[in-house]
Design goal:
SH3 type barrels, Alpha-Beta Plaits, 3 domains, five-stranded antiparallel sheet, 11 helices, elongated, disordered N terminus
């Protein structure tokens, strides 16, 4: 019985990435220039000896490239004023050396004609190259961001945004490297992505609060409503200095030397008053005081202003100001407005100002009234 011809539209077996890479390496060894044909003939007749020779040749070339070419490039870069090229060449040495060396080992494995394990060796060697570039990219991103952070003339990279940018770059390097590793080992990335999506949904429901804090922390770092060292007030009553901004929580150090850890999910939905925000870190304090009716108001203004100007913790610019605020039932209310450098000085400076105002008023004869009640009896009760 005659064999039936195979239809032309029947599905063909897939070519594995390692098999395709092996075919490309084999084609490279066959399409060599004429002056390399004797060497190719020797390798073809003595595969093991040729593989060792190829491995040693690429090992030597990798060292020469690293210690001669890259070293000269680094020396040239060190003579320039730009430090970014130094960082680039420093992190380029290891991946380039690894690529040249392990590419030679892959070529040696391919021409050695091993009876087994060729695909495994090729996949492992190619994986080392991918991992080397992935780690090099992650280290390079950190040093590049540190370089931009130290450059004060570059405004688009701010210290508070560096952790978020660094995290995004490193995640991108890991994703690209993982995708390349899956292709090298012949694993279908689509199936893993579908499985990861299902697992992600399950994890999202199980750890929704943790994920909410992580996303809120990312947006806090990116949006920067506050930074480390700022004094902030929350609408829930907490007040303190920001000592740490993490991806899960923010820590506040109160004036009582108590550290409060607030989840970023709460911080992202809270109304935050940043006392260190604005054009500068200075903050204005208000000191209210009442004087008796009939006092010399011009003298009161003069005395209050001199008290503010004489305190060593009060800023000279903007200068202290005095404003009359209201006619109260028992007094005329004035307010001394002073600026101080740091919000944590508020309580102590206000304490000093109140004591100084009391002394100055006593010396100037200005009376600080207190509530009094006069009782008028219109008719005395009879003895009956």
């Amino acid at each position: 019985m005659a064999a039936q011809p195979v239809p032309s539209n029947s599905p063909q077996p897939q070519v594995e990435p390692v098999k395709a890479l092996s075919d490309q390496l084999h084609a490279m060894t066959e399409n060599l220039p004429d002056w390399l044909q004797p060497s190719a003939q020797f390798v073809s007749e003595n595969p093991l000896s040729g593989a060792v020779a190829i491995a040693l040749l690429f090992w030597l070339f990798a060292f020469l490239f690293r210690w001669v070419i890259l070293a000269n490039l680094e020396h040239f870069a060190s003579r320039t004023n730009n430090l970014l090229d130094n960082v680039f060449f420093t992190h380029l040495r290891r991946p380039v050396f690894t690529t040249i060396l392990f590419f030679g080992l892959m070529l040696a494995v391919n021409v050695a004609r091993l009876p087994f394990g060729t695909d495994l060796f090729l996949s492992a060697l190619a994986s080392v190259i991918v991992v080397s570039w992935m780690l090099g990219g992650m280290k390079l991103s950190g040093d590049v961001l540190s370089y931009f952070n130290n450059r004060r003339d570059i405004e688009w990279v701010e210290p508070r945004t560096i952790p978020a940018i660094d995290l995004v770059i490193k995640l991108t390097c890991i994703l690209i490297g993982s995708y390349a590793l899956l292709l090298i080992w012949g694993i279908n990335p689509l199936g893993w992505l579908a499985s990861a999506g299902i697992v992600g949904i399950a994890v999202g429901f199980a750890a929704k609060d943790t994920l909410a804090n992580l996303f809120a922390g990312f947006f806090i770092v990116a949006d920067a409503p506050y930074k480390i060292g700022d004094y902030i007030n929350l609408d829930s009553g907490e007040r303190g200095q920001v000592t740490h901004i993490g991806m899960r929580s923010t820590r506040l150090l109160t004036r009582d030397d108590v550290e409060i850890t607030v989840p970023n999910g709460v911080m992202g939905n809270a109304k935050i008053t940043n006392e260190s925000g604005g054009r500068h870190q200075k903050v204005r304090i208000r000191t209210r005081v009442g004087v008796a009716y009939g006092s010399d108001l011009d003298r009161v203004v003069e005395v209050l202003k001199s008290v503010g100007e004489s305190h060593d913790q009060v800023c000279a610019e903007p200068e202290p100001r005095v404003r009359m605020r209201e006619f109260a039932p028992s007094s005329q209310v004035f307010e001394l407005l002073c600026w101080i450098e740091h919000p944590e000085q508020r309580g102590r400076v206000r304490h000093d100002l109140y004591l100084a105002i009391d002394r100055a008023f006593r010396e100037s004869g200005v009376t600080i009234p207190f509530p009094q009640t006069d009782l008028h009896i219109r008719q005395m009760p009879s003895n009956d």
